[in-house]
Design brief:
The structure is a homodimer. In chain A, strand 10 and strand 11 form a beta hairpin. Chain A has two domains: 3-143, Jelly Rolls, CATH 2.60.120; 149-228, Winged helix-like DNA-binding domain superfamily/Winged helix DNA-binding domain (Arc Repressor Mutant, subunit A, Orthogonal Bundle). Chain A is elongated. Chain A has eleven helices and eleven strands. The two termini of chain A are 34 Å apart. Chain A has helices at residues 6-10, 13-16, 20-28, 83-88, 109-118, 120-146, 149-163, 176-182, 187-198, 214-221, 225-228, and strands at 31-35, 40-42, 50-56, 59-65, 68-75, 79-81, 95-98, 102-108, 169-171, 202-205, 208-211. In chain A, helix 5 (109-118) crosses helix 6 and helix 7 (149-163) packs antiparallel against helix 10. By secondary structure, the first copy, chain A, is of the alpha+beta class. At the A-B interface, strand 4, strand 5, helix 4, helix 6 and helix 11 of A face strand 4, strand 5, helix 4, helix 6 and helix 11 of B. The structure holds a DNA duplex.
DNA sequence: CGCTATGTTGATCCATATCAATAAGTGTGG
DNA sequence: CCACACTTATTGATATGGATCAACATAGCG
């Protein structure tokens, strides 16, 4: 794996505090690959041979059952996915596909488990990361069970606005059809939910969103830190 | 904390392989309390001061938003809850209440974090446990996004039958109203879903379930190991 | 430039929630 | 131990959120 990729990976919380020797050992077995868009990287049920790190591009984690399919989450640089499967040495519970041209680092799962046993700071980082992921899924689950689809959309827009630095205008980072799937609704329904939010100060032009009055949107969205704040 | 409780806690995967000294250190600050039914042990948003261990009875983890409430999961002996909040030292994302008279051990979160840094086997156990929990929530999330309510019920019944040793007859371990909430539906809807499963060989008498022909139920439930097998 | 995938809108259908009434338990205190 | 109160479960009627189907517009893309 080219040395030039090291700093990016090293900068992740997961790898930041481990010793140089252990990091080097991890990188020894790792390699980086470039993938075109829409390539299925892993499939639900496959053995978890590699921990994946998205260096550029983006990856969709999705799942299918009985002819239906749903997006579970999106991984953007720089971040890892399928950490839990790697730790447990179990099969993947989700499939993954590139959304665009992407560079992905692959680190052999057995190396991750081996270094975990050697390097305490790495172990600490993994458990912190895993706890964060766990809490994110809990939040997504609460979102889905407690809110209607337009409430989910309204809160999603508020989160994205925060992410964009609080500006009144920002762009959706997804195709709407995949946003719909992430939010647990159909594309048609998403269109209508957007239309319903016009009345609360949301303007939509393609993927460009304008929120004229955040307070007004918040009054109907009722965001909660325990669902919507992904930093805690 | 009474010595008599030690063996039960010690037997958990989480505490099984740590050194005696570290286990003793954890137990030093811990205490056990008896709670009557329907006591709220923790509330969403509270700081996570203690890791909880259910020694007897059972505990409902639930969450509320905007006047709605939903059961997220049930903790039965012997198991811990709110491990992720303890690890991250963050606020609870769920509330917890006793469902029946319960004995709960409370272990100060800071002790858990401290011993994590000292005892590698404990660290390994925590990360394994957390990865398992993570994967359970992913499964629950897939269940909710990919299945209709009666498909969820059918698969739930198949899982419970497996849990009961595969017998054709077994008892639900929940009030139906809480089972409905866990499955993400209303009690009325659960009644109708049960009625709908009569046609597929499911008999219901109070909380006593009879599955006359598992194969027949499986044909409509289509269980998947990546949603329904909670051991992987 | 034309093809294909995506997005929107309308009409309709279906799953699920809500509301209401009743029945069946369950627990409590006299 | 029974009567009463209260919660839970079931059933029916109805409302509604959301899915599906179909048509069309639009935007990317080769």
């Amino acid at each position: 794996m080219p040395e030039s990729d090291y700093p990016e990976i090293r900068g992740l919380h997961l790898f930041r505090n481990m010793t140089d020797a252990h990091f080097a050992a991890l990188m020894r077995g790792a390699y980086v690959q470039n993938f075109p868009p829409q390539i299925e990287l892993i499939a639900e049920g496959d053995p978890s041979d590699f921990l994946h790190v998205v260096l550029s591009g983006s990856v969709d984690l999705f799942s299918a059952w009985n002819g239906r399919e749903t997006s579970m989450s999106t991984v953007r640089p720089i971040a890892t996915f399928i950490l839990a499967a790697t730790i447990r040495d179990g099969p993947y519970l989700m499939s993954a596909r590139t959304l665009e041209k992407s560079r992905i680092a692959l680190i052999p799962s057995q190396d991750v488990r081996a270094i975990f046993d050697e390097d305490h700071d790495f172990a600490r980082a993994i458990v912190t990361e895993l706890a964060l992921h766990f809490r994110s899924v809990i939040k997504a689950h609460k979102d889905l069970k407690l809110r209607t689809s337009s409430e989910r959309l309204a809160n999603y827009l508020l989160r994205q606005q925060t992410r964009a630095g609080g500006d009144a205008e920002f762009d959706l980072r997804f195709e709407k059809r995949r946003l719909a799937s992430l939010l647990g609704m159909t594309p048609e329904n998403l269109s209508r939910a957007f239309r319903g939010l016009h009345a609360h100060g949301v303007r939509v032009d393609g993927s460009h969103i304008t929120i004229s009055d955040r307070g007004r949107l918040e009054r109907i969205a009722r965001p909660s830190p325990f669902i919507d704040d992904h930093t805690i």
